[in-house]
Amino acid sequence: MENLSDIINFGIARAISEKRSIDYITARLIAVAVQEQIGMHSALSAFVYDGVITDALESELLRLDVRPYAEADRLQRWACWLATYAANARRSTADGDALCAFLSLQTGREPDTQPQRRFAGMYIRSFTDVVAVRTIDLESYEVVPLFGRYHVFAR
């Protein structure tokens, strides 16, 4: 799976550098890799098979619990990128790393029935430069360092 992993990571790196969602091929490869690791899930399996984005796919990805699996951090990151790909196909949002950072803030909170909506309302921006982050009012915003960037959310 290392070659597949390299291709997926390259697709994510391109998306980050071009400030856009992942492309269709990277999305399908992520779906294949995640399904290969965690097994069959109805909406994910359907996306692997036909590439059609459904509400169920986004919902399933946001509820996916990859903690018991090897490479859980990588699987969680990929699932977040795929979830934002699905969301961006229907409406514009941020990238998968920002969503993954947002989900890390949710630990210990009540389960959210619509995390994508809360995410869209709270996400401000992601930065690669720590100097830019130092100018942010930390009483009003929460900064989550993740995957080499700083993701900013309204409190």
The fraction of residues assigned to DSSP E strands is 5-15%
Total helical elements = 8
Fraction of residues in H or I helices: 55-70%
Major sheet summary line: 3 strands, antiparallel
What's the SSE pattern?
HHHHHHHEHEE
Number of strands: 3
Explain the overall architecture.
It is a single chain. With 155 residues, this protein is mainly alpha-helical. Helices cover 58% and strands 11% of the residues. It has helices at 2-17, 24-38, 42-50, 55-63, 72-90, 96-105, 115-122, 130-133, and strands at 123-127, 141-146, 149-154. It has a three-stranded antiparallel β-sheet with strand order 1-3-2. A hairpin with a 2-residue loop joins β2 and β3. α1 crosses α2 (24-38) and α4 (55-63) packs antiparallel against α5 (72-90).
Descriptive terms for the model:
single chain; 155 residues; 8 helices; 58% helix; globular
Compact overview of the structure:
By secondary structure, the chain is mainly α.
Strand and helix layout:
Blueprint: H1 2-17, H2 24-38, H3 42-50, H4 55-63, H5 72-90, H6 96-105, H7 115-122, E1 123-127, H8 130-133, E2 141-146, E3 149-154
Antiparallel strand pairs: 1-3, 2-3
